[in-house]
Amino acid sequence: MLNKEQEKTLQKMLNKFQDKQMIIAIEELSELQKEVCKKLRKPYSSNDALIEELADVYIMLNQIRMYYDININDVNYVIDKKIERTKKLYLEVK
Length: 94
Description:
The structure is a single chain. The chain has 94 residues and is mainly alpha-helical. The chain has helices at residues 4-17, 20-41, 48-67, 72-91. The longest helix has 22 residues, at 20-41. The N and C termini lie far apart (35 Å).
């Protein structure tokens, strides 16, 4: 979760670069995909690049949320529902 100062900084970036940040978000998602593929090929390699891309994507996901004025509580609610559904489908004994 972002702190207030981080939120302010991300909002300033959105104000400055506007919809261009959505293009950056797409690029960052692609870079994370690449790093996950590399990690699958070399599972014992360092996690440094993967951590870097996870951080970039986390930042950009928050900017997407802010750009479209989506409340974090709404996102967290849906996350909880999806995890609960997955738990029921795959983890609970029937």
